[in-house]
Amino acid sequence: MKIYITSCDKRVGYARKVKDMLKDSPYEYFFVYGQTNTKKIEPYIEVDVQEAYENLPEKTFCLVEHFMKNFSDEKLVKIDDDNYLDVKKLGRYETSPEDYIGHFHEYKLHDWYDPYFHWYKMDNPEYKIAKKQFELNYAEGAVCILSRKACEKILKDGREFFKNTPETYMGEDIRVGMSLNDPFIVKKDIKISTGLTYEITEDFTAIHPVNLLVFDKLMATKTNEEKAEVLKKYDYLNENHHRLQFLKKVRPVAS
Predict the structure, then answer these.
(1) How far apart are alpha carbons 171 and 55 in whole angstroms?
(2) Would 216 be classed as within a structural domain?
(3) Residue 73: CA count within 13 A, CB half-sphere
């Protein structure tokens, strides 16, 4: 099992926290950067993609390709640099039969349409358009564990979906989800619902999104109950919390 962490030059602080989190990991891991001239956190790979939020789908394809070309492991773990990961709990998934382990949504057309989705992260104005309406499969979650079979599908169908929808931005989690919408891909959902705006796996293996302060607090905990208390106390630092406050301001109120 290999772990890949998507990061960028603007988030050195987050990468350092993740490296500290993984210092005793039995698994080899890599930070994944696009093209940049600034300092990177080792160990890393640099992929042939310009560093931009809207290029995350291609960046994801590149890290999957790196895994497939360089290793024979059966599982790939992909996280972002604002994910807390309890590495001690990953062992149970090494031999699990599923091809995709994470959280998997299926959105119908009327559920998805949201012109404000991720606008605040876009560098390129051409992506700031109302999203085209698709029936979407969205591979969301604090952690995504992929089999080699799933990786093959992502490289083949994910890139094809990317090419066929150039007129609108679709996040990397959506492209992964669309490519894995296949009856031969076995999926396991490990997400639970909570009263908080964090995304938390059922056994607290992973938590997202985590502020720098919250990283330290979570790494000092020993039980799931302690983790829950930290999240409750520091929920106001959660990016999802602020995102919801933003959407309340910009979305029109139904009459």
Answers:
(1) 9
(2) yes
(3) 19
Which two structure tokens, joined as six digits, stand for 8? 């960028």
Number of domains the chain is built from: 1
What predicted TM-score, i.e. pTM, was given to this entire model?
A: 0.87
- pLDDT one-digit tens code per residue, 93-118: 999 999 999 888 776 665 444 555 55
Confirm whether 174 is domain-assigned: yes
Q: Where are the beta strands (DSSP E) in the chain?
A: 2-6, 28-35, 44-50, 75-80, 84-85, 100-107, 136-147, 187-189, 191-192, 199-201, 206-208
- In the block, residue with structure tokens 């997202």: 208
Is residue 33 within 8 Å of 6, Cβ to Cβ? Answer: no
* Domain-embedded: residue 255: no
3-state SS, residue 218: helix
Whether residue 215 lies inside any domain: the answer is yes
Give the residue numbers spanning the domain of 166. 2-250
Burial class (CB in 10 A: 0-12, 13-18, 19+), 25: middle
Per-residue exposure over 176-208, b if at least 16 CB sit within 10 Å of its own CB, e if not:
bbbbbbbeebbbeebbeeeebbbbbbeebbbbb
